[in-house]
Amino acid sequence: MKASQSLPKPENWQDFESLCKKLWGEIWNCPEIKKNGRSGQNQLGIDIVGMPVGENGYYGIQCKGKSEYNDNQLTKKEIVTEIEKAKRFEPKLKKMYFATTALKDSRVEAIIRKKNIEHLQISLFEVHIYSWEDIVDLIFENKSTYDYYLNSQTFKKRQSIIVSFENGESEITRYPKFIKKSHISASKYDEMERNAERFLSPILKNQLKWQEKMWKNYGVLDFGGFSTANRTELNRSFIESKILLVNDGTEPLEHWKLTIHYPEEIVELSDENKERKGNFIIPSYRTINHDTYIDTENHLVEIEPRKKILVGDDSFRSKPIFVKPIAEERTIEIPWKLVSKNFKEEGILKMNIEPKFDYRRVKVADDSPFLLDERKRVVIEDFIEIIDDDN
Predict the structure, then answer these.
(1) Which SS3 state, helix, strand or coil, does residue 387 take?
(2) Averaged over 237-245, what is the pLDDT?
(3) Could you give the dihedral angle defined by the CA atoms of residues 208, 213, 216 and 222, in that order, rounded to the nearest 10 degrees?
(4) Which end of the chain is more exposed for a tag (fewer CB within 10 A), N or C?
(5) Are 20 and 34 in contact (CB under 8 A)?
């Protein structure tokens, strides 16, 4: 009877992608196998692509790293999202593989099998999944990959770190909120209002009267809410995240500094997402956390803790870092670099952005420049949530 097989998982998603490229390159006997595109480009659900020997179409692999410290699994939404992206891959795929460091899960495998049948019935690419146990079996069956991977694990650095988000993952999905305003001419707006007025409650009718008064006085009617004397404004367009650094090596990390470089898709950085207004006394200088420094001009976050030594198996968790992304659905790659007394390392974190929009109409004059310029007809603004501090 064959003994059970096990291998340690790769330390980060970059190493996992490289392992998958090496493994399936050997399985497919495909020296031309390659990673798809470069960092920051839309990869259409495919991280690795190649044409197996004897085939006349491309096979694609979507690599999904999951933390080994929890039971995180692929979700149905993730699977469907990546498959939909892969449908736009050119030229059309013959097969798509999900390769994941997550453990085998019968529910996930059932979702994949059903998707595979659906695709076969309409002549689309096949869909398959290989969880970590499946991948380990393949590694043992392919000598070149086995030697490559065993060598990389045997000579693991005595100094080693894991940089991730707070949940231990190197890839997260966030849902920032934005306001999408459509500017509508006064004449068209009034016509819409008359058509809808018969369906309005008395309370809403009173609000409309108040808003009409604002329109006559100021020329712009915006359904953005009411102000209070003392209030806190929470900007829900900002994403909150914390950085987790774990020393998983055998040697202490001494006098270390972690630098995170946010790309241009992140339009603003801050140490908080709120602003207090009214009669509050706001200090001109505020120190939130002595460990974390934010360089808003250069889109940098530097973490240099007062605790200069991080021993093996110890961890450091940053204070919240708030970032505002472009209001578009995309995956943002965030490079990081760690330097210390005798060690340095670098890598990439991924942030999937799926913005949510609050649609609003703004009444403007018929000759308003907002209507003359097509780019100004619909504008996107931050979503500000107002909290009355007097209550």
Answers:
(1) strand
(2) 92
(3) -50
(4) N
(5) no
CA 278 to chain centre: 35
Determine contact, residues 362/218, Cβ cutoff 8 Å.
no
Q: Which residue matches tokens 């470069």? A: 38
pLDDT at residue 198 in the model: 52
Tell me the CA end-to-end span of the chain in Å, nearest whole number. Answer: 71
Query: β-strand 231-235 against 309-310: which pairing, if any?
Result: unpaired
Q: What are the backbone dihedrals phi and psi of residue 207, each rounded to the nearest 5 degrees, phi first? A: -65, -40
Helix 186-197 crosses helix 202-218 at what angle (to 10 degrees)? Answer: 170
Report the range out of 11-15, 115-119, 355-359 with the highest average pLDDT: 115-119
Instruction: Work out the burial of residue 176: count CB atoms within 10 Å of its CB; fewer than 13 is exposed, 13-18 middle, 19 or more buried.
Output: buried
The Cα–Cα gap between 7 and 139 comes to 9
Distance CA 35, CA 322 (A): 31
**Per CATH, which fold does 13-156 belong to?**
Restriction Endonuclease (3.40.91)
pTM equals: 0.50
Pairing of strands 243-247, 48-50: unpaired
Read off φ and ψ for residue 163, nearest 5 degrees: -110, 125
What tokens appear for 86 in the block? 């892969």
Helix, strand or coil, per DSSP, at residue 100: strand
Residue identified by tokens 């404004």 is: 233
Contact predicate 164/349, CB 8 Å: yes
Confidence of residue 7 (pLDDT cuts 50, 70, 90): confident
* Type of residue found at 386: I
Written as six digits, the tokens of 26 are 């050997």
160-391 to CATH, choices 3.40.50.1000, 2.60.40.10, 3.40.190.290, 1.10.8.60: 2.60.40.10
List CB contacts of 124: < 8 A, sequence separation 6 or more: 87, 118
Please tell me if the domain spanning 13-156 has the same topology as the one spanning 160-391. no
Torsion of the alpha carbons at 205, 209, 212 and 214, rounded to the nearest 10:
-130
**Of 40, 55, 124, nearest to 89 (Cα)?**
124
